[in-house]
Amino acid sequence: xxLIQPVRGMRDLLPSETAAWRALEAAAxxxxxxxxxxxxxxxxxxxxxxxxxxxxxHTDVVQKEMYAFTDGGxxxxxxxxxxxxxxxxxxxxxxxxxxxxxxxxxxxGAMFRRERxxxxxxxxFHQFGAxxxxxxAPEIDAEIxxxxxxxxxxxxxxDRLTLVINNLGSAEERAAHRGKLRDYxxxxxxxxxxxxxxxxxxxxxxxxxxxxxxTQAIAAAAPRLAPGKESAAHFDSVKRLLDxxxxxxxxxxxxxxxxxxxxxxxxxWRAPDDRRxxxxxxxxxxxxxxxxxxxxxxxxxxxxxxxxxxxxxxxxANSPTPKPTPSLQVAAIDEGDALGAFALNIxxxxxxxxxxxxGDDVEITxxxxxxxxxxxxxxxxxxxxxxxxxxVGEDELRAREVTIKRLADGAQxxxxxxxxxxxxxxxxxxxxx
Length: 433
Ligand code: AMP
Prior knowledge:
With 433 residues, the chain is α+β, with helices and mostly antiparallel strands. The protein has helices spanning 15-34, 48-55, 60-65, 84-93, 138-154, 171-187, 194-197, 213-220, 229-244, 289-292, 307-316, 337-356, 374-383, 394-399, 420-427; strands at 38-39, 45-47, 67-70, 76-79, 103-112, 124-133, 162-167, 250-251, 263-270, 279-285, 300-306, 327-332, 363-365, 388-392, 401-406, 412-416. The protein has 15 helices and 16 strands. Strands 1-5-6-11-10-9-7-8 form an 8-stranded mixed β-sheet, sandwiched between helices. Strands 13-12-14-15-16 form a 5-stranded mixed β-sheet, with helices on both faces. Helix 1 (15-34) runs antiparallel to helix 5 (138-154), helix 5 runs parallel beside helix 9 (229-244) and helix 12 packs across helix 15 (420-427). The structure holds adenosine monophosphate.
């Protein structure tokens, strides 16, 4: 029988990758905390209606990509394709918007979209993102964008990414623009690609996003949204704030974003090449969203970044990978009962000391007994990926000492077994407070 495979477009993350994921998640949480954003965790499964209307009934996500099903009790449920609407729902349900605004929340987790899998595009992918609720001022748009820049700087990819921004105008201005676009594209319908033709009536804004060359040429001459005075002033303020923070950006009238709930500022951070999947992060303002899910009128602004795509950028940028986790093997030479118990005791002392001082980044393992001598134990420890080995034999047992060897260069030192802090320092275990 052949091994059962994971679902197409979904993949396992194994220890060779999870260390980098954890480091990135920790960096993101630190970055968001520095801006006052606190974590929210919402369910992976939500009522289908939460997404259907808010994301837009005519969007690709809702029409084709949702993992939607009816459960045993007849409820229509969907694996979340994104987290913004759920985070807004959760904040409203808990009344977080009643505290002095804005409510600042961040999240991270798996999202599900039944897209065609390809490099950088998965059916289960991961995002982290942040939402600021109850904040109509342009400062918040700028804060969110600057927070993205800070995170990218921490990841060593700031210089690789281009920020693209656009002004979608108010909901009313968008509706008027949609009408004009519909008329324009109807007049050119025979020259559009098939997918765009199907969008003319329901979602003409998305045609601006088409990757088809001929459609792009037609879209380039389409009527532009003319933001009203207030919308233009908001967007100008955002740009002024970005200028003041010395953040470079491009303006692109074709940036419409895939989801319907956006208004005013939208933005995207793009990877340098022309790969189709070059959006690393996207976001914008969604002032009508809270009301559309049954809450009070509440301005909002947020973003989501793709973890897989950010990690790919970090790899491309050769961002220094975290140094190897200190990993100590505690091995006994010619292991017998007494030596085995002594080695186990040392390992336990070191684990307790490491955990007690807040360190969780040191690995202390006991290799299986194999009756071998020092040379063979060292070789096996290297093969198992250990950075250090603690060797104990009869002499060490008698003197209650332990010799620690650093495998990279062979340097070694002898310690009394009680000197756990010195041992951990030699191994390079991180100290936290
Ligand atoms: P969105 O929620 O569509 O605005 O997407 C925000 C970010 O999530 C994108 O910029 C990507 O980095 C990432 N993303 C979206 N869809 C996928 C996918 N199918 N696979 C991997 N990453 C994705």
